[in-house]
Amino acid sequence: MDILNRSLAxxxxxxWDFIDDEAREILTNNLNARKAVDFVGPKGMDFGVVxxxxxxxxxxxxxxxxxxxxEVLPLIEVKVPFKLDxxxxxxxxxxxVDVDTDPLVDAAKKLSKIENDAIFYGxxxxxxRGIIPALETDEVELEKERNKLVxxxxxxxxxxKDEGIEGPYNLMLGKKLHNLLYELxxxxxxxxxxxxxxxxxxxxxxxxxxxxxxxISTRGEDFELIVGQDISIGYSKQDGDELEFFFYETFTxxxxxxxxxxxxx
Length: 265
Fold this sequence. Notes:
By secondary structure, the chain is α+β, with helices and mostly antiparallel strands. 32% of the residues lie in helices and 29% in strands. Strand 9 and strand 10 form a beta hairpin.
């Protein structure tokens, strides 16, 4: 069974191409967490669990026997519906370039936030432990002076290297800390460039982090976004002049080495 039902949508292929292209642009700009973690997959629609390699003792109620069960991470399924006006899509086929795609944009941003939040903060009901809850090191407060901020990051990077956590590192910043970079900038060598030289990676604006930030090693294998069905768009039904679509994704996330990141504030 094709869960996406794309062939049932009463729209031409060129309309699907347009919808996919619009979605891809929004998702590329908003799936910020993917820039700092390993992407594993896509493994397919029927991929449902990740083996952790660990066991948990259970009571089997049989004397003289020991029981345990495999610990696994189940993939969660996320579906975000949105509606588009059929007349707008028909206008596209007639050459319109100003098609109203606001519902699609809003749904793509919502799905992006769901994935970003799961990676950084976890999703308890989905058995996902995010990066920040898993961190073992104390958070570091960034100084509100240009030189001190740079020296603080140099110190953090050196501490990580001393622990065997190599770079490059990505600096993931919420709005408050991201704005701080530009408040401290001057007409000389841009602060952003200087910090990127220190971390060896890139600075990424992540609205989901709000007033926080995370410095993450991108050496690999520390943080894994494991995807079954990567983000796709499906079709649900027609309701009058409206066509209902949905974004769909299955994924889980695991932290293999919580020492490979440092929380910032």
